[in-house]
Amino acid sequence: MKKLLLLVVMSIGLSVKAAKPNIVFYFIDDLGWTDVSFMGSKYYETPHVDQLSREGMKFMDAYACAPNCAPSRACLMSGLYGPRHGVYTVANSDRGQAKFRKLVPIKNTTELAGRFVTMAETLKSAGYVTASMGKWHLGDDPTTQGFDVNIAGKHWGSPSGGGYHSPYNYPNLVTEEKGEYLTDRLGQEACKFIEKNKDKPFFLYLTHYAVHTPIQSKPELKAKYQKKTPVGGHKNAAYAGMIESMDDSIGAVQATLKKLKLDDNTIVVFFSDNGGHGAVTSNAPLRGSKGMLYEGGIREPLVVKWPGVTKAGSTCREPVIGVDFYPTFMEAAGIKRPKKLKLDGLSFVPCLKDASASLGREALYWHFPAYLQGYTARHGAFRTTPAAAIRVGDWKLIEFFEDGELELYNLKEDLSEGNNLAAKMPDKAKELHASMLKWRKATKAPVPTEKNPRYDPKAKYIPRVRK
What are the structural domains of the chain? Predict the structure, then answer.
């Protein structure tokens, strides 16, 4: 079935006469909503991404499909929500101490199965040269999922070996001497790929390990930010240095596109896979952080630049989500979707043409039937217990499976999710919950119900004190 779908896509792609736009997708790891200057940070410096936002369209209501790495990436690549592929979290779903878990969570899948036709496979079949550079986290090798080139991608979720500083040993990226910085090198490899394939349509997936832990900056950049005054909860000098290096790599790639006169026919996307790490950065004014279904865990900075289509310096407030990129790229490339290719997202090309356009979407959904242990004292034992969420218009509902608790928020009036309206507006909560249940049934989304025999209701959580 997968081969048949790819043959159909290939035949359609070959019939497209118009020049296909190149696609460059900058996918940053763990970057929070305000961790870039154009989204409000007064501490972190991102001049190249800021320039991209001035040249393209900024999205204020853009979402990852999950609050942590692997499931967000699985949804992006497959164009499908979590219940379709079973990648719900990173590693095992029963994280944290068993005595605090009331339920047995749904078993997690750690790799994106080969039966799914990925975004890369579809673009490759339509004539694109495809490259994944950096974090893959969906299996052992992205070249088995549609990429012609793999630089440094494997099952790892964070930098291996010595972290961001060489020596390190990655697939097709081995540096034995000291002194090289991984983020810089990935940017250099991306530039080489563009130069080599400048005469062909290409899809470059520059999926930085940055700014995921370990928090390791270039020493000179850390020193630079240690001299700055913290602002708005942004104060980690090493993290700031990592962000600047990420920004510099994007500047290098953008300069290469301009130098080769490819800029006018290249769609550029800047996006993050989940919210910022709560022990490293602040996601304010959003509530929560990486690993939570509050806005701080799933709302992301997004810029799309498509010369001749997006209006420079424009802002779109239509909600979009990770599964939308697949159909958006297909439409942009002139690829007609085969009837048997199932995708959960919507193309937001109409928004790229007109920032005020509405997609007429029924809802956005999140399904996270797993546990994630806390990493700060304020989290307690868990950042999140098994939960799900839905957004309909300005309304958002979160359901926690341990006790069935519902939380209802009006994001237009309460972006920080500080005022739970579920008790005051039970009809609205019931309405959104009914929509969630309908979607859950349609996608066969599993909900944990089995009681955990190791749960101890008398156990008291004592935060670990790090020295």
Answer: 16-362 (3.40.720.10), 366-443 (3.30.1120.10)
